[in-house]
From TrEMBL:
Gene Ontology cellular-component annotations: plasma membrane
Pfam families for the chain: Competence (PF03772)
Topological type in the membrane: Multi-pass membrane protein
Membrane spanning stretches: 12-35, 41-58, 219-243, 255-278, 290-310, 316-333, 345-371, 383-401
Domain (ComEC/Rec2-related protein) ranges: 211-392
Keywords: Cell membrane, Membrane, Transmembrane, Transmembrane helix
Protein name, as recorded: Predicted membrane metal-binding protein
Cited InterPro entries: ComEC_N (IPR004477), Competence_DNA_uptake (IPR052159)
Keyword set includes Transmembrane: yes
Subcellular location, record wording: Cell membrane
Length: 404
């Protein structure tokens, strides 16, 4: 059974690339499929190519003429940012179209928004404009990036904004309220504990973290603060360790993960890495308990195909390329020691990082290899302990860098 589904995923990707105009990688994929596809798989692979072509053409048409947001705009509480009387947000219009926005707010509205934990509604007439693409060579193309990741094409500009709060009406809005309470709890913690906890567990970076952020960027390890599969692996490992100490049956832990993992997609910033990690974990649990017999490569292919159909351009982003490249290597490489595997993964990711950032630091390989285990086995467990019981001794240890 292993192997046929990766050919279908490659066919789907090739069709999508043709539809959106990526002819060179599409031709390379088609040549690879021509060599690898056996006679009994020609029909299913051809169907995958046709389905991908249709999905790619639809996405290309939507990119040329994206749907226009209409009606009132609902904004999750944590999707609104305030700074010195200025507000920016990302929300969803009444017709389901995602839209970002910005404008000024008066002091009364700003004070009310700071303590808000409910969804916000922006009423009235809105002036919208299409996000402008990059105009200069090597300029970051924000418009293309947010379309690839969020299907976001329009921005609302209104000089004075006024929001009305309403009670949550679905599970996503309810979970977003929990996220607000977590932020409030984190604000009570010492500076360093708060900064690292918000970055590693919630994917939220404060402005007072800019100095450390730039240092991590220079070292090429800033991705540790992008909530992804690495964080999910560490959290899952900690959950199993804790459950084993309490003698909780593994089957019960697996059942709890089926419920808890989808909640992470609502609680944390939804990126390609987290999406892939959650659904591969869920697929693995279902496969094991129902004894379906799918291999790791099959599960990887299933998740990739679903993600491609939902986000056709996910593999054009750096996050999408890294998460599926590294996961594919983990599935394909034979068993080896951890340090040997880490070297291979870091080296494989360097071309992708260099392509997107136009820079390469030879020390990045060393720092990734040395620091990733430290974050997984030291920093994240230490932060979890400090969050659960932030007594003075624990917070003193976790905040030791504050005096440096």
């Amino acid at each position: 059974m292993s192997g046929r589904f990766i050919l279908m995923a490659a066919g789907l990707l090739a069709g999508i690339l043709i539809g959106i105009g990526g002819w060179l990688p599409a031709c390379l994929l088609l040549l690879w499929l021509l060599v690898k596809t056996t006679r009994n798989l020609v029909i299913v692979v051809s169907l995958a190519i046709l389905v991908g072509l249709g999905r790619g053409l639809i996405d290309a048409q939507q990119w040329r003429q994206p749907p226009v947001p209409q009606g009132s705009i609902v904004i999750p509480a944590t999707a609104l940012k305030l700074k010195e009387g200025y507000a920016s947000f990302t929300g969803r219009a009444a017709n389901g179209v995602i839209v970002s926005g910005r404008g000024s707010v008066n002091q009364a509205v700003a004070a009310r928004l700071k303590s808000n934990n409910q969804p916000l509604v922006l009423q009235g007439q809105h002036q919208i404009k299409r996000l402008a693409p990059a105009r200069n060579q090597f300029e970051f193309d924000y418009a293309t990036y947010v379309w690839q990741t969020q299907q976001l094409a329009y921005e609302l500009v209104k000089p004075q904004l006024n929001f009305e709060s309403r009670s949550p009406q679905n599970i996503a809005e309810l979970v977003d309220g929990w996220r607000v309470h977590l932020f409030d709890y984190f604000e009570q913690l010492p500076t360093k504990v708060r900064q690292y906890a918000k970055g590693l567990f919630l994917g939220q970076l404060d402005e007072d973290f800019l100095t450390q952020r730039q240092a991590f960027v220079d070292l090429g390890i800033f991705h540790v603060f992008s909530v992804s599969g690495m964080h999910l692996f560490a959290i899952t490992a900690g959950l199993y360790w804790f459950a084993a100490r309490l003698r909780v049956p593994q089957g019960l832990v697996d059942l709890s993960r089926i419920v808890l993992l989808p909640l992470l997609l609502l609680l944390l910033p939804l990126g390609a890495g987290l999406w892939r990690a959650v659904w591969m974990r869920l697929a693995g649990i279902v496969n094991d308990h129902l004894q379906l017999g799918f291999s790791g490569l099959d599960l990887f292919s299933f998740v990739l195909m679903v993600n491609l159909f939902w986000q056709p351009r996910v593999l054009l982003t750096m996050g999408g390329q890294l998460t599926y490249l590294l996961t594919g290597l983990l599935v394909a490489l034979p068993a080896m020691r951890s340090w040997q595997l880490n070297w291979r993964l870091v080296l494989a990711s360097m071309p992708v990082i260099a392509w997107h950032t136009f820079s390469f630091n030879i020390l990045t390989v060393l720092f990734n290899w040395l620091l990733m285990p430290i974050f997984e086995l030291g920093v994240m467990p230490g932060l979890a302990i400090a969050l659960l019981c932030h007594t003075p001794p624990l917070t003193m240890v976790c905040n030791c860098w504050k005096m440096a």
